[in-house]
Specification:
Order of helices and strands: HHEEHEEEH
CATH topology: Beta-Lactamase
Number of domains: 1
Distance between the termini: 39 Å
Structural class: alpha+beta
Length: 177
């Protein structure tokens, strides 16, 4: 009986590993295909990921291999709203109209990419008290007919997992522990 449980556990682990490897290949391909960011879209003085924010993001990617791209937008002290953590670079990219609208209204931005291959849910990121402290961009692979509501639920789950670890927005910039 124990041997059968061990085999089942190993099989499940193998599936998780293969899924993660395939997701990583897809993530790498997505990053390679991203458009170049113009220098005027960047804050040249903010170039290093926020340590705790990057830790949260890395943990979320490890738990959710179905996520293609992930980014946290927030306002570091003395800066405009920028990307402070991501799995695709662009640290210091200044928040655009969509990012800021999400933060100011609390309403998610939901969209299918122009080529129809990706679905993005950008949500307001909150601290444990419910105060909006930034935005979380979550991108999935997408095919026409995929369940957008199910993808939204995954994005909300990731946001809620992060929220539970954020007593304030300042924690995003704290050392990763």
């Amino acid at each position: 009986m124990k041997r059968a449980a061990d085999i089942a556990c190993l099989a499940a682990l193998a599936v998780i590993c293969v899924t993660s490897m395939l997701a990583q290949e897809t993530r790498d391909q997505a990053v390679a295909g991203m458009r170049k960011v113009d220098a005027k879209e960047m804050d040249p003085t903010y170039t290093t990921p926020a340590p705790f924010a990057q830790k949260l993001l890395n943990e979320a990617l490890a738990r959710h291999p179905e996520v293609l791209l992930l980014a946290i937008h927030a306002t570091p002290p003395g800066h405009k709203n920028v990307i402070i953590a991501s799995n695709f670079g662009r640290i210091g990219k200044i928040g655009d109209e969509d990012d800021l609208r999400c933060i100011h209204t609390g309403k998610s931005n939901l969209e299918v990419s122009a080529n129809g291959k990706h679905f993005e849910d950008e949500l307001a990121l909150q601290d444990t008290s419910g105060k909006t402290i930034g935005a979380l961009g979550v991108v999935f692979n997408y095919r026409a007919g995929d369940d957008k509501a199910a993808l939204e639920k995954i994005a909300e789950q990731i946001r809620d997992e992060m929220k539970a670890q954020l007593p304030s927005g300042a924690v995003l910039f704290a050392p990763a522990t």
